[in-house]
Write a structure and sequence with these properties.
disordered C terminus, 16 strands, 16-stranded antiparallel sheet
Length: 476
């Protein structure tokens, strides 16, 4: 990714009164900086520069900052998060670590976030290489000295990702040149190109890239993949313009293991169908995917990861499993919830002795959710419905771990003292965490209509290489 300083005037889209001269610099991929200077033209003479900036810091910390570069091009910084350092001559705003940044550069002036709408976008993911299909090589040499690219595209045509979005895989070779070593490194990249039947806002596009397509590939290979090389093309006054989008989660990612890349190869040629099915699933059930994707995106303590995995299984059951509820919604409302709550609040109720309204409210709220299966019952259903697949993944009786999973969840959720000796810790907790993740992925992949053997192979490619105290079937 090309990084360079960009000078110009920066302001809020709704408040040009706070316009200042400035310089934005993205330093490597872990740190960004916006330096503001010559701000006296927007400062009341009766206050100092520091007082003005401190007073208006909430405006500078706007999620969208618009800038006009000195060469006439536009720039927009989205999802910004600053901390300020004031000096006598200038004010320096630094991006904190582990934040999102989206930078647009292009030839058209951007006035507000409403201007950022496009009907097409292309992107790739870090470390997602050319494992998505057969290709035809088409060399394209560039006139720039010591620089060339080799492009090759798939034999297959564009496919429908949804009713309104078309998708296409485009395979390219990127190259980097080292003048110090006098060497050129060439590596393959899979570009994913999307085209919508209507214009979509950039924030919606970024959600599709991360929460639909990115989530699918991250779950398949067992590691978070970050979107890179994001570009959009628009036509303005009869001319075509290309906008580059720099979008990074500021954390480093290691290379994929071969067995994880192998998961994608095993899915051909049905990968397009699984991706479209996942897109549809993630669109209808975003909470399930958002919850599970946190396990790939963020580093966290093991206890939190375990709970997040359990919550993912519970939310999947709540939205997908028809057996998740004891009674139909109408039967439960008419025959259980309504009669019970009416009795609790009636004059004949034995609860009249208490004046604690919070307790009554909590009791009626508990009744409201009593129609749902317990975690123990959910896990039993999953084991029973997927017994043939699970027994081919794990060599021991994983169903025997249900009580331990439930006790561990209850301890880390409520911290009731009597549960502490029953809860898993250390390596045992690691094993339970992996079991829960495997259960979720079995349910998800079956929802995508993946064949049984492909589900087993994909999960083994993700988890089998890790040394654990339980043994995966076929890997003794």
């Amino acid at each position: 990714m090309e990084i360079y300083k960009q000078k110009g005037k920066f302001w809020l889209p709704e408040s040009s009164d706070h316009q200042v001269d400035g310089e934005f610099e993205l330093i490597e991929e872990s740190h960004g900086r916006l330096i503001l200077f010559d701000v006296i033209d927007v400062i009341d003479d009766s206050v100092s520069k520091e007082e003005y900036l401190n007073k208006n810091i909430q405006y500078i910390q706007h999620p969208l900052i618009i800038g006009e570069l000195n060469d006439g091009k536009g720039i927009a910084l989205l999802q910004s998060s600053f901390r300020s350092i004031s000096t006598k001559d200038f004010c320096n705003y630094d991006y904190g670590y582990n934040v999102d940044i989206t930078v647009f550069t292009g030839s058209i002036m951007i006035g507000s976030v409403e201007d950022l709408v496009f009907n097409n976008i292309s992107f790739s993911f870090d470390h997602l290489h050319h494992y998505l299909g057969a290709c035809i090589i088409d060399p394209d040499f560039q006139p720039i000295p010591r620089s060339f690219s080799v492009k090759y595209t798939s034999v297959e045509d564009i496919f429908n990702l949804s009713d309104s979005i078309l998708c296409r895989f485009n395979y390219v070779f990127d190259s980097s040149f080292s003048s110090y070593l006098s060497t050129t490194h060439i590596y393959p990249v899979t570009l994913i190109e999307l085209e919508s039947s209507s214009n979509i806002s950039i924030r919606h596009w970024l959600d599709i890239i991360e929460k639909n397509i990115g989530a699918f590939f991250s779950i398949i290979v067992g590691k978070y993949l970050c979107p890179t090389r994001i570009k959009v093309n628009i036509e303005y006054e009869g001319k075509h313009y290309e906008f580059k989008v720099f979008y990074r989660y500021f954390n480093k990612h290691s290379e994929l293991f071969h067995n994880k890349r192998n998961s994608l190869e095993k899915m051909m040629p049905g990968l397009k169908n699984y991706l479209a099915a996942f897109y549809n699933f993630a669109t209808h059930y975003p909470l399930i995917i958002d919850n599970y994707l946190t396990l790939y995106k963020f580093d966290a303590i093991l206890e939190y990861k375990f709970l997040s995995a359990v919550y993912s299984v519970e939310s999947f059951s709540r939205y997908i499993n028809p057996k998740h509820y004891y009674f139909s919604e109408a039967d439960f409302e008419n025959n259980c919830y309504k009669p019970l709550t009416e009795y609790i609040n009636s004059n004949n109720s034995k609860f009249l002795y208490t004046t604690n309204k919070d307790y009554i409210s909590r009791l009626t709220n508990s009744i409201k959710y009593s129609n749902e299966l317990s975690l123990r019952a959910i896990l039993k259903h999953i084991f029973d419905d997927n017994k043939d697949i699970i027994e081919k993944i794990f060599s021991d009786n994983i169903r025997a771990h249900i009580d331990k999973i439930v006790d561990t969840r209850n301890w880390y959720t409520h911290f009731t003292k009597e549960l502490e000796p029953l809860a898993a810790k250390g390596y045992e907790l690691v094993n339970l965490y992996k079991i829960i993740r495997v259960l979720f992925e079995v349910c998800l992949f079956k929802q995508l209509k993946m064949p049984e053997e492909l589900i087993i192979q994909t999960i083994k490619n993700t988890y089998c290489w890790t040394n654990t105290t339980f043994i995966l079937a076929g890997d003794k």
